[in-house]
Amino acid sequence: MPSPPQSLVVLDVEGVLTPEVWIAVAERTGIDFLRRTTRDEPDYDVLMKGRIAALDAAGITMTTIMEVVEGLMPLPGARRFLEELQSRVPVVLLSDTFEQFGRPLMAELGWPLLLCHTLVVEGDRLADYRLRVNDQKARSVEAFRALNYRVVAVGDSYNDMTMLAAADSGILFRAPDNVIAEHPQYPCCTAYEDLLDLIDGCILNF
Amino acid sequence: MPSPPQSLVVLDVEGVLTPEVWIAVAERTGIDFLRRTTRDEPDYDVLMKGRIAALDAAGITMTTIMEVVEGLMPLPGARRFLEELQSRVPVVLLSDTFEQFGRPLMAELGWPLLLCHTLVVEGDRLADYRLRVNDQKARSVEAFRALNYRVVAVGDSYNDMTMLAAADSGILFRAPDNVIAEHPQYPCCTAYEDLLDLIDGCILNF
Question: Would you name the residues of B annotated as active-site residues?
């Protein structure tokens, strides 16, 4: 009897387990520019440089930004979902957020492994950002597959699509209608219970 | 001002965070053969096949083995140490144990990410084992380095040495005297507080 292969699940974070950090900063500071996302500005570097310029123009310090981030909570049910999933299969969180933003939210989620990027902070000013590696979500999935894991990837937006494509199975969670329409190959759902079922189904098919 | 590189810590599990599972099974079943380790039998396949034959000869079922494993607790202070470390840096547990043995211990440790192997169970019999990948500890370190993390590796025994060699920095924790003597290049300690300090020192030097 062959033994089933070993599986690993990678999850996007913002929109899947936590609120969108930049939206929260926009609401707290009243800077509408910070509501722009990669959907409005597909060039990530232009977007981030614009965010930093907008924060500078308004005199928003890193202390203020971190107060917003530290006030955020995971989405309702997220921690329970994550713990249930971790009891079944190894889980890695893959996000294009930054370690400084991720840390308070990971504390609320019981310190799951989060692979992400980092901000450059000078004094109390958000000065710049550093991508640890380009397309890190897809590259991380490739790395876990090379380590002989079958990978299920869960995401919600355009910047997750290379990750889903690199995985053995992909699932859309609370994705916008256009993302769902453009990627009919992926099952989709909006409730954590259904997500657990979809992940189980993927793993059983490996 | 250059931003510091992003760091990640990999930890061996048995002897570092938890007791040795096979020693516990040996004590519970009275099968002395199960006390043999890779120090007594360097060929891992011969060792594992011997363990399985010894369990079969004594009629020890998977249910009994799992009762032993589920009765194990992390080493004193291990969970607190792990949570403190996770609040500072991403942490991955690398072990040559098996998912079935790891799961109850990971529950006690708050579900950190554990990369390991799997047992083949037929009915209630431990029938075989499957290494997910050869030399997985070193290969995992190489994968995280390729994803642009600087890696600190912590281990205690011979099967950790390729992992320590692959990492940017290696630390010996509660290692036997011969391992320490043969690897003078690595700092060593026996208390979790000192281990936190050594890890911090490695990261600051990156």
Answer: 12, 14
